[in-house]
Prior knowledge:
alpha+beta; Ubiquitin-like (UB roll); five-stranded mixed sheet; 2 helices; 5 strands; 12% helix; elongated
Amino acid sequence: MENSINLVTIYVMGKKHSVPGDLTIMKAMEYAGHQFRRGSGCRGGFCGACATIYRTKGSFKLQGALACQKIVENGMYIAQIPFTPAEKKTYDIGEVRPDDSAFLEYYPEITRCLA
């Protein structure tokens, strides 16, 4: 049984990298040595912090995707979009009920989290 990795070529902010073709954009960027200090968020696809624009080889059309969800393609040109953090909820901790419904009230996006 052959244990070979299908490498593809991607360009991150203009720099060429060879990465495994079954990785998401985010994992491919990390494979290439990029460290996420911002723009990595939940890594589950619901926060939107990893918004990325890309175009594929031979196409002029810019496309958008979440880097944690989109699988890389050979010849893909990638650029991260500067992000704005999600709206921060404000509340008085002394007035919050200590039960599950409080989490859903202030952070409804957790129902979409798979982890």
